[in-house]
């Protein structure tokens, strides 16, 4: 299979095609980055929901009403206080884990946003190069080729008409 070569016989065509390639790649890479962020969000959301449920359960499961605490003896209160300390430590661990996951996700979002802005700028540059190249190519080169082709076509048609008139005069 032969791959056709790019028409780079003209600087403006080259600029236009180069801009088109840049524009196309920026769209492709932007899509890839968006897809990666979507997949990370798909992984992140269930982890955070699970941690939030665990934290809520840890913090609210073993809390006794005020009336029950009044009826407890000294030893029971001491044991309950130790239990609350364990719960507090476990809760702090879960909160720290949730904060780490959230921080990592926020960093990913920030990085993705910067990359998307970069590819947006590159894509706009490519788009402008493409438009500029095609416009300059048409204005400085192609319209003269079109005019020449049109003129040659008109000359050809005039010659055919002359030949037809000569033939009609010969035949007539």
- Write down the secondary-structure element order: HHH
Q: How many β-strand stretches? A: 0
Count of discrete domains: 1
| Strand coverage percent | under 5%
C-alpha end-to-end distance: 57 Å
Give me the Rg, rounded: 38 Å
Q: How would you describe the shape?
A: rod-shaped
The number of helices is 3
Keywords: Coiled coil, Membrane, Transmembrane, Transmembrane helix
Characteristic terms for this protein:
172 residues, mainly alpha, rod-shaped
Topology:
Layout: H1 11-61, H2 66-71, H3 74-171
Helix pairs in contact: 1-3
Quick summary:
By secondary structure, the chain is an all-alpha fold. It contains 3 helices and no strands.
3D structure, described in words:
By secondary structure, the protein is mostly helical. The chain has one domain (11-135). Helix content is 90%, strand content 0%. The chain has 3 helices and no strands. The chain is rod-shaped. It starts with 10 loop residues before the first helix and ends with a helix. The model has no long low-confidence stretch (mean pLDDT 83). Keywords: Coiled coil, Membrane, Transmembrane, Transmembrane helix. The chain crosses the membrane at residues 12-31, 118-139.
